[in-house]
Amino acid sequence: MIICIDVHYRDDFAQVAGVLFKDWTDEEAYKTYTIQTPLAGEYEPGKFYKRELPALLALLREVSEPLDFILVDSYVYLGKDKPGLGVYLYEVLDVKVPVIGLAKNHFRAAEEVEVRLLRGDSSKALFVTAIGCEATWATDRIKEMAGDYRLPNLVKLADQLSKA
């Protein structure tokens, strides 16, 4: 199973959504999860994981299905040998489940470790980083995902559910 997780912050809580699917080419979600969690703290530049990681872990505790891959709306690495949210998540999960970061916004320091992906007719790239699997392999899987636009449909669904 593959899960795509996204978090949206409100004034006093975080809404976390997970979209579970069986295969990279699936057009429909197998199952969705949404939870609300307390805010873990204020945003700290360069330490985004401190705010996001507790919310992701809270959602993952709700998932009973075994996971093969986790997609996060973030960078796995912020640069060469500079861990980002995905690395911290991978380590907390005892390096058992590969984590793929799919970022919508470019982070200049990560240019060395990211793979740029153009989907559909979009001229705006997605930025892929990974741990536990090769970033180029992960990019090929994201390219295969259903959807005619920049964001794969199931990634967009996670984003929408986190904002609902």
Short structural description:
The chain has 164 residues and is an alpha+beta fold. The chain contains four helices and nine strands. It has a seven-stranded mixed beta sheet with strand order 3-2-1-4-7-9-8, with helices on both faces. Strands 5-6 form a two-stranded antiparallel ribbon.
Strand-pairing-aware structural class: alpha+beta
Question: Overall mean pLDDT score?
Answer: 92
The number of helices is 4
Q: What is the CATH architecture descriptor? A: 2-Layer Sandwich
How big is the Rg? 15 Å
- In terms of quaternary structure, what is this? single chain
Order of helices and strands: EEEHEEEHEEEHH
Low-confidence stretches: none
Overall description:
The chain is α+β, with helices and mostly antiparallel strands. It has a single domain, classed as archaeoglobus fulgidus dsm 4304 superfamily (archaeoglobus fulgidus dsm 4304 fold, 2-Layer Sandwich), CATH 3.30.2170. 27% of the residues lie in helices and 28% in strands. It is built from four helices and nine strands. It has helices spanning 48-62, 85-92, 135-144, 153-163, and strands spanning 2-9, 14-21, 31-37, 69-72, 77-79, 82-83, 99-103, 115-117, 126-131. The chain has a seven-stranded mixed β-sheet with strand order 3-2-1-4-7-9-8, with helices on both faces. Strand 8 (115-117) and strand 9 (126-131) form a beta hairpin. Helix 1 packs across helix 2 (85-92). The longest helix has 15 residues, at 48-62. The model has no long low-confidence stretch (mean pLDDT 92).
